[in-house]
Amino acid sequence: MMNFNKSLLALVAAALLSTHAWAGEGPAGHSHGTEHGHNDAFSAGEPGNPKKTSKLVRVTMGESDGKMLFAPARFEIRKGEQVKFVLRNDGELDHEFVLANTADNLQHAEAMKKDPDMAHVDANGKRLAPKTTGEIVWKFTKAGEFEYACLIPGHREAGMTGTIVVK
Predict the structure, then answer these.
(1) What does residue 137 show for φ and ψ, rounded to 5 degrees?
(2) Would you say 78 and 166 are in contact if contact means Cβ atoms under 8 Å apart?
(3) Which residues, in sequence order, are CB contacts of 120 under 8 Å at separation 6+?
(4) Mean of the per-residue pLDDT values of the chain
(5) What pLDDT, in 10s, does the model give residues 37-83?
(6) I want to staple 140 with a disulfide (CB 3.0 to 4.6 A). Which of 20, 26, 45, 99 is the partner?
């Protein structure tokens, strides 16, 4: 039985690795590339240059009193500004920070309901295990109101969204 389990595990691992190799940037509907008709498909701007950040924003994720939240839940940025987001998950659950417009995040959230363990490979998102940190550097090239949200099923619904106003 042990050899059968090892063979099965090796077969599954080979299938997963070969699928990943052919998948390109990530699962359909999850990467930001030409599926929106252009290469600059990020709705909230573009990945920034870590050597040219002009602002540091610390964002904490977690759970409190039956809600899931980000702190701060709102801030303002100037158009053209490059921001280094220092993310910390102080919670007991995995959380993620996905930066986009509301429509894109709602579409992404629907895809996550079908595949809650979806791997993130996009520059505008980071998933963090409890008590861990991460960073995203982002350049806000468009004015408007954008959001960051945790798109793990149930988290957004529990209040895990934030607003960025770009002036």
Answers:
(1) -110, 125
(2) yes
(3) 26, 30, 96, 98, 126, 127
(4) 79
(5) 333 468 889 999 999 988 999 999 999 988 999 999 999 999 999 99
(6) 45
